[in-house]
Amino acid sequence: MWCYTIFFDHENKLPDILTAGLEACGFDVLPVSAGAQGRLTRARNRQIALVSEDDEGSLRMLHPHMVVVPPQVQLPLYAYRSAVSCSAAVLPGALAAGIAGKINAKCLVTYGMSSKDTITLSSTKDAPMLSIQREIIDLNGKRTDIQEIALRPIAQDNPEYIMAAAGVLLLSGVSPAELSSFL
After folding, report:
1. DSSP string for residues in 112-170
2. Given its phi and psi angles, is residue 179 left (phi above 0), alpha (psi -120 to 50 degrees) or beta?
């Protein structure tokens, strides 16, 4: 079982988007609340625990497999925190410099509309194309090459949430072909 920690944002949409995408790809998603850590030890393969911060903003698990930073996170809230170590991190490219030193990840995937981001959207209108601009190595060690992936038209969701979800799904081992049918 993998454990993903999602940093808090005021919209709190990312956990719902990630849960829907991961479940559609065959993962069993377990939201973990305070006092429920025992569930993690009895988990099976293809299960993911989504751990959110508590009300004080502290992380319940200090060594998650993946840390996910939503697009509208408030950086001053994280200035006092100690570093979190993880296998992978997904964060907005625009915030990468401000979060540097707070997340120690073996694999870092950034998302946004910059040419420097790992994941961008090359089109946001009728036929959005997700652009993977650098090779991604997932948590199982499998590589995803540089490519563009056709997505379904984006409805009301913020495109940054779609890019963040794509990063999490790809790092979880979801193939680009699977990704195009779920996002």
Report:
1. SSSTTSSEEEEE-SSS-EEEE-S-EE-TTS-EE-SEEEE-PPP-SS-HHHHHHHHHHHH
2. alpha
- Burial (Cβ within 10 Å: 0-12, 13-18, ≥19) of residue 136: buried
* Arithmetic mean of pLDDT over the chain: 77
- Asked if 104 and 85 count as a contact pair (C-beta separation under 8 A), the reply is yes
C-beta of residue 36 within 8 angstroms of C-beta of residue 23: no
| The predicted structure's pLDDT at residue 119 | 97
Distance CA 20, CA 14 (A): 10
pTM above 0.85, yes or no: no
Q: Using alpha carbons only, how large is the chain's radius of gyration in Å?
A: 15
* Exposure b/e, 30-56, CB count within 10 A at least 16 = b: bebeeeeeeebeeeeeebbbbbbeeee
Q: CA triplet 161, 181, 108: central angle to 5 degrees?
A: 45
Measured from the Cβ of residue 155, the count of other Cβ atoms closer than 10 Å reads 6
Instruction: Show the low-confidence residues of the chain (pLDDT under 50).
Output: 34-46, 54-61
